[in-house]
Amino acid sequence: MGKQTRERQLKLEARIVKLKSREKELRISKDRIVARFERTCQLLKRLNQLREEQCELLKEKFRLTLHLQVESEVQSRVQSKLQQVMTLQQQIMVKAAQQDHAKENVAGNQDCVSSSKDVVDKMQRMEIELRCGICSELMVSATTLNCMHTFCQYCVTQWKNFEKNRAPIVGCPVCRDTITSERRNFSMDNIIGIIVDCYSEDEKNNRKELMKQHQELTRNLLTGERQPNTSNPFYQITNRNVFIGEMRVEEMPSLPRINLQNVTRRRSLTSITSRPATVRRLQQGSVRPRWR
Ligand SMILES: [Zn+2]
Ligand SMILES: [Zn+2]
């Protein structure tokens, strides 16, 4: 009996030892599980934090995307405005170039106008220089005396005839040098021809008429008609005055030697003013040569 109890006691003790060992194992296992649980809890907590951070990042990304979109729209608007500005700049440059071109044209035209005025002025001065000192018209059949003064051939011939009636020595009507020789001046005829080419048709016809009159009068001189009369505008007698061209000789009727101080220009004789000298018409502005 005691032996059985003893065996039973031993078995119980062995079982207790086993149970204690098992308890110890279980306690260790429990500690591990608790530690693992705590670890898991920490991981879950960390996971939650990460999710929250992810959420924040997504929000931030969304905000950035929106911002980028707005920025892109603004940029495209800015690009469009820049394009417009560039187009306007190009238009302004084109306009400026056109204005420069127009200014250059205006300046060129002004130069042209002033140079053509200059040419007209010089032509007028030259025309005045080429007028006969006796009849004041552009010379017809220019004839140069030994003193180098030049007149129409008819005018100077008429002057010489007139002078011969009163004095043995005939002088130049301008400088009074004795006339010893005379020559036709064809160069001057050509220059006068060039000037007349610039005239209007009316002026050219007047010039032709004048040349025809000179030819007829020269022919009359050669055939002996040498006295002044009322129909000859270049050698005319009216009341007590005798005119050679536009020069008036006041002594009449004995026709003494002409005192050149008494030789004056007539201005109001009807027969002449009805065919006024071109220079007077130019001065009055009623006639404009073609080159104007
Ligand atoms: Zn003349
Ligand atoms: Zn002279």
UniProtKB/TrEMBL annotation:
InterPro entries: Znf_C3HC4_RING-type (IPR018957), Znf_RING (IPR001841), Znf_RING/FYVE/PHD (IPR013083), Znf_RING_CS (IPR017907). It comes from the Eukaryota. Residues 132-176 form the RING-type domain. Residues 200-227 form a coiled coil. One of its GO terms (cellular component) is ubiquitin ligase complex. The keyword Zinc applies. GO terms for biological process: double-strand break repair; protein K48-linked ubiquitination; ubiquitin-dependent protein catabolic process. GO terms for molecular function: histone binding; ubiquitin protein ligase activity; zinc ion binding. Keywords: Coiled coil, Metal-binding, Transferase, Ubl conjugation pathway, Zinc, Zinc-finger. The keyword Metal-binding applies. This is RING-type domain-containing protein. It comes from Daphnia pulex.
